[in-house]
Amino acid sequence: MAETLDSTPCGALIIGGSAGSLDVLLEIFPALRKDIDFPIILVVHRKASNESLLTDLLKSHTILAVGEAEEKEFLSPGKVFIAPADYHMLIEEDQSISLDYSEKVNYSRPSIDVTFQSAAEVFREKLVCILLSGSNADGVEGLKSVNNFGGRVVIQNPNTAIMPYMPQQAVLNVEPHVILDSHDMADYINKLNG
Amino acid sequence: MISDAIDNEQVEILLNDVLESHGYDFLEYSHASIKRRIIRLYGLDNFVSFAEFRYTVKTDKQYFKRFLEEITVNVTEMFRDPSFYKSLRNDVLPVLGTYPFIRIWVAGCSTGEEAYSLAIVLKELNLLNKSLIYATDINPSVLDKAKKGMFPLNYLKQYSENYLQSGGLKDFSAYYTANYSLAKFDESLNKKMIFSTHNLVSDHSFNEFQLILCRNVLIYFDKDLQHKVFNLFDSSIEKLGYLALGSKESLEFWPKAKEYKRVKMEKIWRKL
Fold first, then answer.
1. Active-site residue A184, yes or no?
2. How far apart, in whole angstroms, are the C-alpha atoms of residue A99 and residue A68?
3. Which of B34, B80, B115, B260 is the most exposed place for a label (fewest CB within 10 A)?
4. All domains of chain A in start order, with CATH
5. Nearest to B1 among A100, A120, A141 (CB)
């Protein structure tokens, strides 16, 4: 099972994180290969006001193109799309981005669940979702959908998470494809290249 | 929420029913968002099968009211994006203030928070008396709330902060009286508002305006529908009038965009 999945090309990678995830992202991004052949989507909980901080920070830590996701923009390989602060981000069948200002989910907007769920059906077995450190349970329902549609679920080892609650909840409720220490993540992502 | 409770085909069936039976066209809404709203409502109201849900939406007029209210997003805020309101206050409204009469359309006004915010700025610029704000929405029940001008008191701390950041000059609490859990806004504000249903998908232009505000409505529409609505706005804006959009919305890919000039860094464009 695991082996057949590993040979499936990756259509999109989504990384969800909350409190304590920034350190992991700053460890992952400098180590990513420059010829990544799938889009990377980031959904990170943060305050509504400090809008471009995360984008600017990541830009200075990777050679990949990084930008805040724009409404109706098409996903493209090798680019990092950051869900804007205070909007939910959904993926359409044609792999374009929809933004949504509806109610918060798990006290969060953007909500990791919302993006995981909408992408699960679009990319099916070609989707890889990683859930990082955090102190609420956002992302868990989304990972269930990813599992249902045959995508790969990757969870940060709660023992290596600054805030273990979120990955812990995921491990308890979803069968992960793999659990990774934070320092093994970049290597795992680089190997997703087809 | 079970995210796969309703599939794409069923969404399409349901939206076709809604158009046929009730005359509301959601077929050109962004698919992922509307699908999520539908699945959310299906779960909230504990339907056991798609067939039951479909039948209720199609035949039960009372339930359809709820459907309409829940399927559209009505989340809004007063003085949302303070820098936007600062630009309205400093760059746009003073220019309109040179006109004898100011007509403004708040399209997709939801429960009215943006219309009241606008009225407050107009009042502080001494322009409210010669202004008229047309506030419209597809959804009659949110308009009933908007007319009352009563907003939950627990949001007012945030609104007051937004107001001050947007360049507000007064004590924000001077504009409302607290009434149990609600803040009732001063009636001098909504005296200058006209509330009416209007469906951006199917209804036509009904007047000419110097300013149209339509924020966080177009993100729910697909590209073609967005362009249709821009055309509708274009035929409803006077020469040298303004169009204001939400922080993630843009005129950029609309063919007539070059006939509009962006105002500074905000999502405000002026018709040339």
1. no
2. 12
3. B260
4. 2-190 (3.40.50.180)
5. A141
Positions of chain B with pLDDT lower than 70, given as ranges: 1-3
Please write the tens of the pLDDT for every residue from B138-170.
Answer: 999 999 999 999 999 999 999 999 999 999 989
Q: Which two tokens stand for residue B158?
A: 């945030």
Any catalytic annotation for residue A183? no
Per the DSSP assignment, residues forming a β-bridge with B270 are B242, B261
Q: Where are the alpha helices (DSSP H) in chain B?
A: 8-22, 31-44, 50-59, 61-71, 82-87, 93-96, 113-124, 140-148, 156-165, 187-190, 223-234
Statement: the pTM of the whole predicted model exceeds 0.90: yes
What's the rounded Cα separation, in Å, for the pair B260 and B178? 42
Catalytically annotated residue among A21, A45, A113, A182: A45
| Residues B175 and B120: beta-carbon distance below 8 Å | yes
Cβ atoms of residues A45 and A134 within 8 Å: yes
* Tokens read off for A45: 């909980």
Nearest residue, CB atoms, A91 vs list B8, B32, B250: B32
